[in-house]
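Subject: mismatched residue count in predicted assembly?

I count 564 residues in my input, but I want to confirm that the predicted structure covers every chain. Input:
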Amino acid sequence: MTTPASLREIELVAVNWVAEMEGGLSPQLQAKLESWLESDMRHRIALLRAHHAWERARELSKYLLTELAYATDLSVDARYNSGPDATIELQSRNDYAPAVRRLRRVLTRRQWLATACVGVVLALLLATLSRQYASRTAEQVAYGTSIGEHKSTTLADGSVIVLNANSRLHVESGSAKRIVRLVRGEAYFKIAHNAKKEFVVIAGDVVVRDVGTAFAVRALQDGHIEVLVAEGTVQVEFPTPESSSPDLKGQRAITTVSAGQSASIRAGHVSVARLSSTEVDCKLGWREGTLCFMGETVAEAVEEFNRYNQRRLIMDDPFIANWHIVGVFSAAAPEDFADTVNREAELIPTSRRPLRGPCIHLEPPRIAEDE
Amino acid sequence: MHCIERFADRYVIQALDFEPDLRRYLYRLTHNPSDVEELLQEVYMRLLAEGASVGPELLSVRRFAFKVAHDVAVDLIRRRDLVPMEELPKLEIPNQSDEEGGVEEIVGRAKERLRLMRAIDDLPPRCREVMALLITDGCGRSEIANRLGISLNTVKDHLKRAVRLLTPVMLYGPDNEPGHSRLDILSQQEAEQ
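Triage response: the counts match. Full output below for your records.
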């Protein structure tokens, strides 16, 4: 049985060993330490305790030394004088390496966790590799999102495509051109410039040619296409109304759309509008999960929300459909939008409203239908 | 610890983080500081043995440590006096959050800080400079030697001295605010007299 007095002695020896370790152990001292540790389990415990206490002393000192202002002038001196000593410092820090020591400790404690992490990383790596392999072998890669989802993809050439909710596109690579076919929905393109390989987005019968830029293309109903340019310029090519004559290879018109402009192409006609940078950010807000309206009608906004959510917004009262709204909403919270609209509607005298009660509501949860 | 730490040490290392809680618990059961020291050693021995055994990993080192602490304390009590079974203390593992937010813990930490502050204040000035460069500025040791114009061995000596002078104030035990307050010890000594 150990008396408290001898425990105290062991503790002192252990503190001494921690001091020696801090100074760096010679092989002889290391051997001596090992045999001291082997001679009694209590020695080992004492050393672990002393080391723990020293680690805490260091941790707390870091703060206290600054607080006591011992460190300040020296630290300034040290910070501005790093230079030729940098490598020496690195080396000496290496052999000392408290961080490594702490890391080792964490590793021992959390070994299983680390193993799990490695497993996950490996799985991810495998998935990425197989995907890359797939995209290299396949002529065409399809990307799709469902309602409420948006996805970002970096192509092999470094171009980034962000796919909005409920959208689908095909990327054709390997040819002299980089061709993206937008089948449905909306996508934002940030193109890595490559003079030899044109980047072309085809949406319906509209062709958008990139000249090194960032832009969004949206396919609306009935072949209505919208192009919004955030940076640089694009060329938009579309069939003119005359080309819908039996002469299939009819004429095509080309319009240049530059940064801060949006082009709306519908039935062979294009209208180009100039947008402020706020409006551009607003229109591209979906990439961050926000929906921004600047004078759209409630009907349009509802349609927009329904692209992002499985639960649809339903207008009970057509009275509000043509109201114009301005505001930023979270795409994932259609109920907030409904609340806002309903609150506004309450301000209208009931005599002037065909329906009482809420004008708009979120439909109850349901099972998603497949298209 | 890179050179001596072993896998078997892992439970002990974890238990070191809640040593103050264990001390308080043991003191509540035994009311005797030297008993606390001894029983704590036994708890650590068990944790070391458990860490070295081939069995499954402990789900909660904390629970295990408190259970062992309870068992060894009850053993001691029964060895000393004849205590009826029903009067033996039941195992109560203090809630981690309760303990952490507890007044004792806060006071303990504040006192520990004060002790360390005094100890830093008492360090030889050169030794303190070395500490500051190493700890707050993250300088390497040869850089410290260059900066202060002293030899690498002198830097090491200063560091060793800092360890010897600062570590003891951070070790819990009867000298440094154990799991119980100084007042308890005094009142107990009075009672013994």
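Chain B touches chain A through 59 residues (CB under 8 Å). Marking this ticket as 'not a bug'.
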